[in-house]
Write a structure and sequence with these properties.
The complex is a heterodimer of chains A (97) and B (474).
Chain A: H1 6-16, H2 22-39, H3 74-78, E1 84-85, E2 88-89
Antiparallel strand pairs in A: 1-2
Chain B: H1 6-14, H2 20-33, E1 40-43, H3 45-60, E2 72-76, H4 103-110, E3 114-119, H5 153-160, E4 166-170, H6 177-183, E5 186-189, E6 210-214, H7 217-227, E7 255-259, H8 260-263, H9 270-287, E8 289-293, H10 301-316, H11 335-346, H12 349-362, H13 367-389, E9 394-398, H14 413-418, H15 425-429, E10 433-440, E11 446-452, H16 458-468, H17 470-473
Parallel strand pairs in B: 2-3, 2-4, 7-8, 7-9
Antiparallel strand pairs in B: 1-3, 4-6, 5-6, 5-10, 9-11, 10-11
The chains are: A mainly alpha (97), B alpha/beta (474).
């Protein structure tokens, strides 16, 4: 079984913008170990020379005219904002002197 | 009402035996009577009654009615309805109201279909038993201590309790078919790209497809024919989706391949196996050509599926950041803290697990070993299964190895993932598949069987469902 360390999970949290509690982190380390062990089953398949499949549909480019159309108006778009100011989304100050 | 098809309901309304309002009242009463099963997060009672009344008036005035007049439809909490909350069963979208209709919803409304309410589900459709919802688990009507399956558990039970004609769910790896099987109803996952995903909260975009649950194949067909077709807002919907789904085109005698490796699989429950073989030999074989179909790669579908879906989920769910909509954690000092705290407080444990797993398989050093390898395995599975399908009209397989399990039962994460072994294959390939009820276990739990066919051949699935579904024989 592949070893997965607490530090590795901390790094994944940083990448995924999550901040787990100590307990959650320990649980995820254990889960991830067994999930990845299950993933390793794929090593048994001979996949040499097979191209990765990236799109499941035969649809390629769907061309259309580049026309301007109305989009969601600002009022409506801001309706769901957890915090707004005038016509803008507001966020905590993130630039400091 | 479940013994009546949409056509029969329409006939009764048109001949004055029933009114649309009475149909609405019946369904709303069913919702009330089964409130303890935790099926609906929100019931749209007033709108539903008002629309039914308007339809009655339209009929009285001699105006023509849309194809779905008389169809009352429940909506899984991952599909956007304008002006209504949609939360994906998650705390992170608690306050979110959709400013627009999903394409499928827009088309159903235009055809006079009436939406009855929003159904509970696993958070962001991640789960196999509906225990991952912020709103608590959905219970199976067959036994309140049992799960209904998932992730569209609420959708399946909304049909099971006869509170709607058809339920709209979503199926990324079995989320419509497996709960349909565990609750004794029919569940269809259409071909990938048949119904637009515009307005469906994204989990794993190359697997996700809106699915339909109902008591009758003909009702599912009616809704499918309205919801399908190309869409300016979803480029993955194929032109092929515009072809009507017509059961008349299907021949009388079909060539059916029995996936022996699945029925012989070590994980399958004995009663499911027994009932399935009984059904195949006693019923399917009477009118159709059956022969064993060999597929030896079942044990590779779960790793392939979970690597790719976790990866896609980790990218898709990065949009929930607490800035433009959804939950925002208080007291964050910096922007980074705001992202982290909002997501950490807003997501439940299974969603976090999949985001972390997806981030792992995409991270440098592991990308080739896992993500790219799974993409290769996906092509290998597609090629192998496509070649197999050349010889058959459809493949028969189990849908789940398990009977409904206990709501309190402890199951490890990996064991739960592995229970999706029979249902993820059609999503990996993009093929349509259906689950139909074929009987019950000794203790009375529903048992279903799965039929898989080539893309754009939903008519074969629905024809077989019509012919064999236990419900049909009631």
């Amino acid at each position: 079984m592949k070893d997965i360390t607490i530090d590795e999970v901390k790094n994944l949290e940083r990448l995924a913008k999550l901040n787990l509690s100590e307990e959650e982190r320990t649980d995820i380390v254990d889960d991830l170990k067994s999930i990845v062990a299950m993933f390793d089953k794929l090593e048994e398949l001979d996949l040499d020379g097979i191209e990765p499949l990236r799109h499941i549909t035969e649809v390629t480019n769907g061309w259309r005219e580049d026309e301007a159309k109305p989009s969601l108006d600002i009022e409506k778009a801001l309706d769901n904002a957890p915090s707004k100011s005038d016509r803008y989304f507001s966020v905590p100050k993130f630039m400091h002197k | 009402m479940k013994d009546l098809t949409l056509e029969e309901i329409r006939h009764k309304v048109e001949t004055g035996e029933l009114t649309f309002v009475q149909v609405a009242e019946y369904y709303l009463a069913q919702i009330d009577a089964h409130a303890d099963l935790n099926v609906y997060i929100e019931v749209w009672q007033e709108d539903c009654l008002a629309q039914a009344k308007a339809l009655d008036a339209k009929l009285a005035a001699g105006q023509s009615l849309g194809a779905l007049a008389g169809a009352f439809i429940s909506v899984k909490d991952v599909i956007c309805v304008a002006g209504r909350s949609v939360t994906g069963g998650s705390k992170i979208l608690q306050s979110y109201k959709s400013p627009f209709d999903a394409t499928a919803i827009e088309r159903i409304k235009e055809a006079d279909g009436i939406l009855i309410g929003r159904t509970n589900c696993d958070e962001f459709a991640m789960g196999s038993d509906n225990r991952n919802s912020y709103y608590g688990p959905v219970k199976n009507m067959i036994g309140q201590d049992k799960v209904p399956g998932g992730s569209s558990g609420g959708s399946a039970v909304s049909v099971q309790i006869d509170s709607c004609l058809v339920a709209l769910g979503s199926d990324t790896g079995g989320s419509v078919r497996q709960p349909a099987a565990l609750t004794g109803v029919i569940g269809l996952k259409p071909t990938y790209g048949r119904i637009s995903r515009y307005g469906l909260l994204a989990y794993a975009s190359s697997f996700d497809q809106i699915g339909l649950i109902g008591h009758n194949a003909s009702d599912i067909l009616a809704v499918l024919n309205v919801a399908k077709n190309t869409c300016a807002n979803d480029g993955t919907v194929s032109e092929m989706s515009n072809n009507p789904v017509d059961l008349e085109e299907v021949g009388e005698k079909l060539k059916l391949g029995i996936m022996a490796s699945a029925f012989e699989h070590e994980s399958i429950n004995e009663e499911i196996k027994e009932k399935s073989l009984e059904f195949i030999e006693g019923q399917l074989a009477v009118n159709h050509d059956i022969s064993p179909a060999s597929f030896d790669y079942l044990d590779y579908v779960i790793p392939t599926y979970y690597i790719l879906t976790s990866a896609e989920a980790s990218a898709n769910l990065s949009r929930y950041d607490g800035i433009r909509y959804g939950y925002r954690a208080e007291n964050s000092e910096s922007l980074d803290e705001l992202y982290c705290n909002s997501r950490t407080e807003g997501f439940g444990p299974e969603v976090k697990r999949r985001i972390i797993t997806g981030t792992y398989v995409l991270s440098s050093g592991y990308h080739d070993a896992y993500y790219k390898k799974a993409q290769k395995a996906r092509r290998f599975l597609v090629n192998t299964f496509e070649a197999l399908m050349e010889e058959y009209d459809a493949i028969i397989a189990p849908i789940t190895p398990k009977l409904p399990w206990g709501i309190e039962e402890e199951i490890s994460t990996v064991d739960l993932y592995l229970s999706d072994i029979f249902s993820v294959l059609p999503n990996i390939i993009g093929y349509p598949a259906i689950s139909i009820p074929i009987g019950h276990s000794k203790e009375g739990y529903p048992i279903g069987i799965q039929i898989i066919t080539k893309s754009w051949n939903e008519n074969k699935l629905l024809k077989l469902a019509k012919e064999f579904s236990l419900e049909h024989q009631l």
